[in-house]
Specification:
Structural class of chain A: mainly beta
Order of helices and strands of chain B: EEEEEEEEE
Structural class of chain B: mainly beta
Largest interface: A-B, 29 and 25 residues
Distance between the termini of chain B: 39 Å
Distance between the termini of chain A: 37 Å
Shape of chain B: globular
Strand order of the largest sheet of chain B: 1-9-8-3-4
Radius of gyration of chain B: 13 Å
Number of helices of chain A: 0
Oligomer: heterodimer
Shape of chain A: globular
Number of strands of chain A: 10
Helix content of chain A: under 10%
Number of strands of chain B: 9
Radius of gyration of chain A: 13 Å
């Protein structure tokens, strides 16, 4: 079966532009997670969805960031008016059922975002 | 939410056993301990998970003392391909946040 896929794999944009990053989770996985990883750094948790709902959005770095999930499947992370500090790899993961501490997260390859 | 502390980096040689310890003093009763491995330009992947005592699978062992305030990932007979960043994750998604931390950068030398 297919794993988690993300698109685009690379995105170069100019400061001030909006970008959309897409994540296709593993089929049947109800939980979906977004992380950000700056060069040489650990993973910064952004948000997670259980179904189409995100219980807590406080992990998003600023109000320029938003995320949605539709149909309990595909998720989109949108960054408005991008800044150079937004440059990072954005990783998506999915798991069978959120709310269970034994959940294993399956990660996608990430989208490398570069803001010029 | 439990916070984890790991060594920033470790070096070892091929064929050696490597132990990476993670401290999680504030672990909650319902928290499991999970380790992930990340190669350059890839997303992390699950290695092993445990709650207490010892867990072993085909790639690693996880040792957790009775107080569960720390855990040790043990990689037997490492090879060059084990060079990666290893993350210790403690927590329950019901806390609505997940903290991976900076991980341990393991470098295996020939």
């Amino acid at each position: 079966g297919a794993g988690v896929s993300q698109s685009p794999s690379n995105k170069v944009t100019e400061k001030g532009k909006d970008v959309e990053l897409r994540c296709d989770p593993i089929s049947g996985h109800t939980a979906l997670y977004w992380y950000r990883q700056s060069l040489g750094q650990g993973l910064e948790f952004l948000i997670y969805f259980q179904g189409n709902s995100a219980p807590d959005k406080s992990g998003l770095p600023s109000d320029r960031f938003s995320a949605e999930r539709t149909g309990g499947s595909v998720s989109t992370l949108t960054i408005q008016r991008t800044q150079q500090e937004d440059s990072a790899v954005y990783l998506c993961a999915s798991s069978l059922a959120a709310g269970v501490s034994t959940d294993t997260q399956y990660f996608g390859p990430g989208t490398r975002l570069t803001v010029l | 939410l439990a916070k984890t502390t790991q060594p920033i980096s470790m070096d070892s040689y091929e064929g050696q056993e490597v132990n990476i310890t993670c401290s999680h003093n504030n672990i909650a009763t319902n928290d499991y301990i999970t380790w992930y491995q990340q190669f350059p330009s890839q997303g992390p992947r699950f290695i092993i998970q445990g709650y207490k005592t010892k867990v072993t699978n085909e790639v690693a062992s996880l040792f957790i003392p009775a107080d569960r305030k720390s855990s040790t990932l043990s990689l037997p007979r490492v090879s060059l391909s084990d060079t990666a960043v290893y993350y210790c994750l403690v927590g329950d998604i019901r806390d609505d946040k997940i903290i991976f931390g900076k991980g341990t950068r393991l470098h295996i030398l020939p």
